[in-house]
Amino acid sequence: FETKMDNKIDNIAQDASAHSQELNAYAQNLLQQLQGRFENMSDSLVSKIDSMGTRIGDIEKSIADLINDTGLEDENNDEDEE
To answer: Which DSSP string do the residues of the chain spell out, in sequence order?
Structure first.
């Protein structure tokens, strides 16, 4: 009777160990997938921020060029001096 009970306990322990290893592998895989997705999103955000920065710089330059072309800058400087 003890031998059968010992065998059952050993089998349960082995099953628990196997399930624990499967769960650990699943969790590791899930964490790796999440990390990959996070890195992709992070790279995408950085790229979009860089693009926005470039576009804002272009808009600022265009506005400065328009101000220079229309002579508004000179008129504002003349008014400030008065």
So the answer is: -HHHHHHHHHHHHHHHHHHHHHHHHHHHHHHHHHHHHHHHHHHHHHHHHHHHHHHHHHHHHHHHHHHHHHTHHHHHHHHHH-
0.85 surpassed by pTM = no
Mean pLDDT (the chain) is 86
Model pLDDT for residues 43-64, shown as the tens digit of each residue: 999 999 999 999 999 999 999 9
What residues contact 59, with CB distance under 8 A and at least 6 apart?
Answer: none
Rg (CA), the chain: 34
Judge whether 75 and 69 are in contact, CB under 8 Å: no
For residues 58 and 7, what is the distance between their CA atoms, to the nearest angstrom?
76
